[in-house]
Structures are given as structure tokens and as C-alpha cells.
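Sanity check

After download, print the first record. It should look like this:
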Amino acid sequence: MDLISHMFTGLAVGSVLANFSTKNWKHKLSIIFFGGLGGALPDFDAISLWSKFDMTFGKLFQLSHSGKDIYFGKFWYSHHGAMHSIFAILLFILLFFLFKILFQKKFKTKNILSYFKEKQLIIFAFALGYFCHLLEDMPTPASVWRGVNLLFPSKNYVGGFGKIWWWNNYDLFLIIFSVFSLNILLNFFPNTLKHLKSKIACSIFFFGLILFLYQINTRSVDFSYTGHTKNYQKMEQQSKEIQKQILGTKLYNKMAWLDSKIPLYF
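Expected C-alpha cells:
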């Protein structure tokens, strides 16, 4: 899926978990922000497609392959590689705590457990937002990666089912955005209703999840392919036609207009 949908999935996760907090809005916004960060971060491995990658990172690390070869390769640092794994989630959380220990003088190692308890919703939002990104990439085409390297350092890849196209999934984005928006509004309700808010937030999330899975599994086109395909443009157009059928011409045109204004795949 596209980066914007991944990021909003993380934000949606964060908005759900923020309803479990009775702290101030600064803390709630931190939960939402780190959920969005987790949702977006796995695609940092796409930096190898950056036009200046070879003259910067390639030169610095003396890489023998070009950025394009790395991106479409099966190296551990390729797209859908180690960054798209459960190992990466745990590593980022560990690095965060190591940073606290090494660079914050007031932070003591013995305080790790109490700090984790205090920030557990933020950490969980990041981890769940990150994990949702991995799950969302699995229904896309196999292409050269054949899924994501979910259990790195294992060399097995999971997914590549071809149930949806890489992007142009406007219906899925609208489901994600609706879950996010409803749960943001729910956060404005008094904290005295915490238990009710958390139940409603989870209900909204799971209803959105069911609808999301239904839409994925009822596409009228099989987008499966391995390696590279000559039918790339045809499949992308078919994805757009599916969106027009699902959303109707008016809503589809509005989403397509928004798509044209955003300088990222959407």
C-alpha cells in the first residue's frame, strides 16, 4: 500500500489507544504521533530509490550495488526486507531505551520498568502502527519480493497475494481515515467516560477492520504477478476502475483530484 495510507493507519491506531489515556492532550497527541510514525517508518527502506542515494549512502558504505538494484533486490536492507519485520519493531524500541540510558543523565537503568509503564500506550501505538504496516503490505502483488520479510533474520517472505494494487485503493484509505476521525472526536469526551470511550474506540476499529478485509477480498481483479510485469499500467487502470465502481463517479473524482495534488503515491 501507499505511504499515506500506512501513516494514517498508524494514526488511527494511535487515536484508538489515546482513548485509553486519562492524561492531558500532550500525552494523547504523543500516542497518536508515535502510532503514525510506526505506520510510516517501515518504508524508510525505500530510500535506496532516492536519486542521490548512490553518491551518498552508496559511497559512504562502499556498496557494490546501485540503489535501484538494492530496492528491487532481496538483500536484508532491500525494500520489504529487514525493515518490514517484527525484529525491526523490537530493535527500534530497544534503541529508544538505549538512547534514554546513554544520553539522558537523569534517566537511570533501574527506572526502565516504571518508564515503560508510564509510556506503554505510546510504545504500544508505535509497535502496533508498525505491525499494521507489515500486514497491509501482504495483500499487494508479489513482484520481486514475494511478500515481506516478517520473521527476519529468516529468509522466508510472507504475503504477495495480489488481492489489491500497490495504491489507488481509495476505498481502503477512506475506511482508515474514518476510523481515525471518529476516534479523534471520541477523545474529546470527558475522561470520566474512559471505560465507555475505550470500548467504543475498539468497536470502531474492529468494525473498520472487518470492512477493510471485506473490501480487500472482494476485488473483481486478480493483481497477482511475480518479478516485473508488462501489464503494470493495465493493472493500475483496473484498480482505478474498481474504485470508481465502489465509490461512485463523484466521490472517485474527488479522491482522484486529491491524489493529483499529493506528490506521493496515494
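If your output differs, re-run the checksum step. Summary of this record's structure: The CA atoms of residues 117 and 254 lie 44 Å apart.
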